[in-house]
User: What shape does this take?
Amino acid sequence: MFGRWLGNRTNQTQRTSPLVAVTVPPRAGVLSCRVLDPVNEPVRDAEFAVSDVMGRKIVSGGADPFGSFVATVPAGEYRMAVSAEGYAPFRGSATVAENGHAALGDVMLQVAAPPQLPEPGDWEIEPTHSSIAFTARHIGLARIHGRFNTFAGALRVADRIEQSAMHVVIDASSIDTNVKMRDDHLRSADFLDVDRFPTLEFYGDRFTHKGGSRWGITGALSLHGVTRTITLDAEYLGLGNGMEGETRAACRATAELHRDDFTVSWQTMLAKGIAVVGSSVRIDLDVQIVPKS
Assistant: This one.
């Protein structure tokens, strides 16, 4: 009985040292780190980049569910950069010995100050430095990338940013995938039917802060004669100045639309039953706004 108990204790001790099971190649060692937030909770979405003393990237990746990162690297000196949304970045250094383990231990990330928000008032999209792009799956394999070349938009920033509102109008006929025959088909009644529905419009009236520089913008999208509620997953990039000293604000946003929700349901199939065009379309916006003149 005591033998079985002692054997179980030995097995438990071995399980608490997972690096014992890591096979380390010759002239290499192990580098590890765990990332915590200010209340000692793991930062699961932390990103790591390890470079040598010459600045060459050796390895990169994300943290595991416990905020940990472990990598096998050649013996030598290294710099590690740790970043995560909403936190100030961390930089450290370590020397990895041959067949050794260099542990940076627990790194605590500090909450970063959010970027300054735009002043209350009326702003407008500056189209020269903005883009509205989309990605769709083609025959279940390659992705087709396109954009809308003509659009306009306005944003009214409220004293409480959550009460702000935006309105974007897109010229449907300006769709551009760099293939004329495909673009003509997308403009036809099979898809956007631009003769009947010349514009796509989004009116967003609910801004929700998700932490750090992340926001959700919820509103009504009108496309192909159908209006649906969607939420843009937005990242606010802060304020800057243009070439002439003008104030600019920038953000990125994404959304996934399902064609059937907007009755854009052209479903021609290949012989194997695969739809020529996928059922969902990813929208990517890169937008700069300037005060309305």
Remarks:
- The longest strand covers residues 226-241.
- The first helix runs from residue 2 to 15.
- Residues 1-16, 269-276 have pLDDT under 50 and may be disordered.
